[in-house]
């Protein structure tokens, strides 16, 4: 059964629900969970005009650390072995799904868990969803968790 669960978090409602499911599976199988947050600023080029990239990236990193801290606290409270990783260098701009797949291979995950509606902005309309990309590209089982309503 599953022994290494890779959980992608982004602080969204769907991500919280994915965390709950990862906890359920981990407790049932004795699996370890690695929670990851991918700091990607490529949406900025679609969402804003003028900006200071360093301040925006600092904000993204802070949000990532907050999401990972919250996930770690819940995993610890449930007695689930876990680690967290903030990935600040995606495979390429906007290549979140590829980065998740790369991390799953690197960490030797045997299950990937993520929400279907994250915090990705208008770029999703142009590039497609992260969840779809992971589902189509992964050679490993993927558990997608859908929230009742997008964030």
From TrEMBL:
The keyword Cytoplasm applies. The keyword Cytoplasm applies. Residues 1-146 form the UspA domain. Pfam families: Usp. It comes from the Bacteria. Keywords: Cytoplasm. InterPro entries: Rossmann-like_a/b/a_fold, Universal_stress_UspA, UspA. It is found in: Cytoplasm. CDD domains: USP-like (cd00293). PANTHER family: STRESS RESPONSE PROTEIN NHAX, UNIVERSAL STRESS PROTEIN UP12. Belongs to the universal stress protein A family. This is Universal stress protein. It comes from Cupriavidus malaysiensis.
